[in-house]
Protein 1
Amino acid sequence: MNIIGNQRVKAPWHLWVLGIVSLLWFAGGANDYVMTKTANEAYLGMAADSMGVSVAAILDYFNGYPLWATVCWGLGVWGAVAGSVLLLFRSRFALHGFVVSLIGLAGSTAYTFASDIPPEFATTGQLVFTVVIWASVFGMAFYARAMTKAGVLR
């Protein structure tokens, strides 16, 4: 509980639900990042099969990322995970984690859509998924800000 004046602020039930759901959702992105960066062929093989490309083609694409795009991708992924964990710890720094994620997401999205992405990778599904990720991070940042203003996060 947090104290505002003489009143204790209890964490609402939705903080726990959103914190756990967001952590699970963003952990999926973290898993994708780790499996891609470690060139896990079994994991990448599933994506390759669904796109009709080879694992080598996927690795070539991701290995071609410039350093700044890779850093942005990492910030986007790990900032969201950190924001979710900090939310569950009721830390006011949860918002900072989500802001870091938005900065990283902006950079990685810019690179993805401004680069010469192979046609097999540039699908409507990719665009929809990117919009869902943006909405998720923005939503969680907004929520963390609201919970900080309400005195729930300390």
Note: The CA atoms of residues 18 and 80 lie 13 Å apart.
Protein 2
Amino acid sequence: MRTAMNEALIRHFTDLRDGVHGGVTAREDKERLFATAVELLDPVARATLDEFNADLLLGTGQVVASGLTRSQEGGLNAMWSLTWPEQRDKDILPIAIVAHYGADFHHPHLRGNTVGDWPLNVFDHSDAAGQLTTLRAIAAADAHNLVFQESYRLIPAITHT
């Protein structure tokens, strides 16, 4: 049985081979699919960051979603951020899950503020739910990298025990 992560990679590589994304080739059609993917991912991304808020930040954080936005370069983006007092006090990036479809990209991707790209192949609720492990990994890597940049003192679960 294939894992959701391996399935995402297979879809990604197949899209590259076939020159399609979600069965479409035109940029405007791919952008519509991306907008739908952002809507489908919203509850999964929020739930992921809520887990980190509860476990690492002891409920002191706030999840903020940007919604779908167009970049200056003409691409599309959506960001879910987890901010908290210690992070804001140090003026460093929040833990983030970013969906982006660059103006010159063949198809969209996921990333964090400090971690690179992962294929974004979400076309229905099942696909979105299947990204939970990936979103957790992105958020965990961001948390780790932010602590590495600053200090373990950013994490209330460590400092308030």
Note: The first helix runs from residue 4 to 18.
Protein 3
Amino acid sequence: MSGPRPGPPAREEYAVWRLATTRWSDDDVYGHMNNARYFDLIDTAVNAHLAEATGVDIRRLDAVGVVAEVGCRYFREMGYPRPVDLGLVVDRVGTSSVTYRVGLFQGDPAGEGATAAAEGRFVHVYVDNTGAGRDVRPLPEAVRDAVTPLLRDTRRA
């Protein structure tokens, strides 16, 4: 039997930030952001950081990251028309994989936005991108250099 579910993470647990806008179409018939949009934002936070931090077209590297795992824990509703702050941190850098956490925050950072409305877990596994198949490959050095500074020992139970 597991213990109580950990509460929402705080802003200080994340290393880098990005701002995302919300759109009318992000909300579903229940009046809050559709779960598929959370996954779009999580994917965007990771890949936009990689593209900016490496300074290269990450789609053209000899090894590219494919999603091996993605999940999201929800703590409170989010929705249009409020922007979303995306915090990114790395929990693990392996030989051929990276494990990220992405916090989604909405609202005043000194108020309700001090803790995450949701948190995603995202695992990239690097595979061959040279046309020789999709065998697992080591992380490209440009990726390793971009994610290592985000490594934090803030994993939550």
Note: The chain is about 15% helix and 30% strand.
